[in-house]
């Protein structure tokens, strides 16, 4: 049976939501002003050690970038990288991590398929003295994690929610506006957090009648997209449009990432709808093209190179046998307080895209 921190947290969250009137999802309990770092490995390890990187899948651009950048940057730093992706399958990821331990990895970076399902393999790793860094996604219910490197997940959702409101005002005249909501894959701790952040912004506007969710589907469990699968999101959008919007325009859609955003736009086009305002995440090349064409309204950039660089900084500290630097915040992962090294995501629309990608020629080329 799958025991999840979600169950406990959602009970707690339900209580707080009852007070605040916010949408669902699990929420990170954060405290600021953390000063002390954690000791990853008091003795350090060889400067050419094997470093494992276990990625969840390669289905979105950010993970493909992570695969390439970890391989290149760990090699440049003198390590031997062992980078693998798990095709969204928990047992596959557990086996990959086991193999990394057997091959003597001194640090393992994990982008979890399901952050609640890695406790036992990571405890084995910890027992072998391995430094464990959660990458992009939280690892839950275990103290076998030395730190989390990510872009703020609640902040990301808040930016998506605000951007939906801004896009509606810009493109759809005065409200009230008809909208629908989409969430990401429920096994990924980021997905409910993105949704919670977005609903902090959107719920008051639903309550005052500015936004109308015509389907009435406003709970994370109703709007989540299993496995972050674009095809599943498109199928849900098709049925929302045929069930609730025949003869009615849809003004906006909250999308948790770019792939799902483009699937929503495809569905709307096929249904003969005027394009709704659609948000996104990852600043994927195809979405930059869509934004430049005036279709997708916005995305949120979370540059992979910055996240990889931050991760390697922590690995270097562990290699030297130093304490990890002080984290920005801590999060209760259901078993312990884990330090979060948090970077700032940036909302991108046609208005600021050139500025945001000024130093990113790969992305800049898609704007012209
Ligand atoms: C990442 C997103 C990505 C999604 C699906 C999330 O955990 O933060 O960048 O789009 O997974 O791969």
UniProtKB/TrEMBL annotation:
<dbReference type="InterPro" id="IPR050555">
    <property type="entry name" value="Bact_Solute-Bind_Prot2"/>
</dbReference>
<dbReference type="InterPro" id="IPR028082">
    <property type="entry name" value="Peripla_BP_I"/>
</dbReference>
<dbReference type="Pfam" id="PF13407">
    <property type="entry name" value="Peripla_BP_4"/>
</dbReference>
<feature type="domain" description="Periplasmic binding protein">
    <location>
        <begin position="51"/>
        <end position="323"/>
    </location>
</feature>
<keyword id="KW-0732">Signal</keyword>
<feature type="signal peptide">
    <location>
        <begin position="1"/>
        <end position="20"/>
    </location>
</feature>
<protein>
    <submittedName>
        <fullName>Sugar ABC transporter substrate-binding protein</fullName>
    </submittedName>
</protein>
<dbReference type="InterPro" id="IPR025997">
    <property type="entry name" value="SBP_2_dom"/>
</dbReference>
